[in-house]
Design a protein that fits this description.
- Helices cover 27% and strands 22% of the residues.
- The chain is α/β, with parallel strands linked by helices.
- The strands form six sheets. The protein has a six-stranded mixed beta sheet, sandwiched between helices.
- Strand 7 and strand 8 form a beta hairpin.
- The chain is rod-shaped.
- The two termini are 32 Å apart.
- The protein has helices at residues 65-73, 89-92, 106-116, 136-143, 160-167, 192-199, 215-223, 239-248, 259-267, 289-298, 378-389, 395-408, 419-422, and strands spanning 2-5, 15-19, 28-31, 36-39, 55-59, 80-81, 120-124, 130-135, 155-158, 170-173, 181-187, 207-211, 228-231, 251-254, 283-284, 303-307, 313-318, 329-333, 349-355, 369-372.
Length: 423
């Protein structure tokens, strides 16, 4: 929650006390174990509900020489400066970024997307910059091409090593295994004669032949010097076949899967760098949630990388994240008008108000604790809270309250000074 004097603010999912924006000794907020304090001159706000925890003192304005002097005198550090409490992208984004590098295979990416039940996966470079987005929609078009692009279902864009890794196979022999190539897949599930006829239809150095324990087809493919032969089913490959592959410089992989599964996995060996949406929408983590919502809603993308000041990916924002509630609450101290409050106060829940000024126009979504008394200083109200609830007043807080009272009432000479202030 957040307590606000006209100068104080806090951003965590805790309560914060904020002081008025006009900075003098009265526009300052201080926190102790039991609450927060602020007053004119040296504003100290106390939480008037005994036992309230997770409250952070904050300020939304600068200090001055008088404030610095008093703080130093009583060895109290200044409250954290917060200029804006409006919900930001960082408040609702998914900070645990699930991503893959550009070298990952589509098969690996699909496994992650299935395990984590996500539809969009960011692809990040080593420096955490976003290379692009991988979407299930684009992957489905790749694996299931339209009727006028059926040949694409046989294209394999990968390296020999990447194919072996994707298949969880054993590389029995390889030639230039790390060279990425655009290859054509052919399954040897036919007679030797039919296979020989089909073999002549394609450039042999671009062919991947997937075959089971068909020794005749294995050796024909090797004699014709195809680029790669994949023997399926985890079946043993005869030593003479391996020797023939070496002699003809034909790469040879042993796959543990059947021919149908092997053929499908070969397609998934393509690196994700070839399947990216390279034009995508990003947001900064410190952008206002309300300002980016319309842009995100109108976008065709379902998720958006969130970047920090250096352009590194620190989160992912999905459209459903806009439905999340930002658990940030404020306590306004020494002011009660939104025109005097920290930026964004109208977008979060105001839990309490502690003040001694006139009551302005303020609407809340639910009943709140509003303590407004006709005294000369908020310090008087804060001190009364200590006395009323029997909370021991630490010397440093007592000194701050006294400094605030003296400043706010002009040493008890102000027209607004009351007998309660003097007491």
């Amino acid at each position: 929650m957040i307590h606000f004097n006209r100068c104080n603010v806090s951003l965590q999912p805790v309560t914060m006390a904020i002081m008025a924006p006009t900075l003098n000794l009265c526009n300052y907020l201080f926190g102790i174990e039991k609450g927060y304090f602020r007053d004119e001159g040296l504003e100290v706000n106390v939480i008037v509900r005994p036992g309230m925890r997770n409250v952070e003192a904050a300020r939304c304005g600068d200090t001055n020489e008088r404030i610095d002097f008093v703080l130093k005198s009583f060895l109290v550090p200044p409250p954290r400066f917060v200029a804006d409490v409006s919900p930001k992208v960082r408040d609702v984004m998914q900070a645990n970024v699930i991503a893959v590098p550009p070298t990952a295979s589509v098969s690996e990416a699909l496994g992650i997307m299935d395990d984590r039940n996500i539809r969009v996966l960011p692809v990040l470079n080593e420096d955490r910059t976003c290379r692009g987005l991988l979407s299930l929609f684009k992957l489905s078009k790749f694996f299931f091409p339209a009727g006028n692009r059926l040949f694409d279902s046989r294209r394999v864009l990968s390296s020999i090593r990447n194919l072996a890794r994707t298949l969880d196979g054993k590389m029995l022999f390889s030639v230039e295994p790390d060279r990425e190539e655009d290859l054509v897949l052919m399954v040897g599930a036919m007679s030797l004669e039919s296979f020989s006829e089909r073999l002549a239809s394609y450039p042999h150095d671009k062919l991947i032949v997937v075959v089971g324990d068909r020794w005749d087809i294995q050796n024909l493919a090797i004699r014709e010097r195809v680029r790669l032969v994949i023997v399926t089913g985890g079946l043993q490959v005869e030593p003479k076949t391996i020797e023939a592959a070496k002699k003809n410089e034909v790469s040879l992989i042993l796959s543990p899967h059947d021919s149908a599964t092997t053929s499908m996995l070969c397609r998934g060996a393509i690196p994700v760098s070839h399947m990216l949406h390279e034009h995508f929408l990003t947001f900064r983590d410190d952008e206002s949630l309300s300002e980016v919502q319309n842009v995100a809603t109108a976008s065709a993308f379902q998720a958006f990388p969130v970047l920090d000041q250096s352009g590194r990916t620190v989160g992912i924002l999905s459209k459903s994240d806009f439905l999340k509630k930002v658990d940030r609450k404020l306590i306004l101290v020494d002011h009660n008008e939104l025109t005097q409050a920290v930026t964004g106060a109208d977008q979060v829940e105001i839990l309490e108000i502690i003040d001694h000024h006139r009551i302005g126009a303020l609407t809340t979504q639910q009943p709140i604790l509003f303590r407004n008394e006709p005294v000369g200083s908020t310090s008087t109200i804060v001190a009364d809270c200590f006395f009323r609830y029997g909370v021991e007043l630490p010397p440093s807080i007592a000194g701050l309250l006294l400094a605030g009272l003296v400043s706010d009432t002009l040493n008890l000479t102000s027209p607004t000074t009351t007998q309660r202030d003097a007491e």
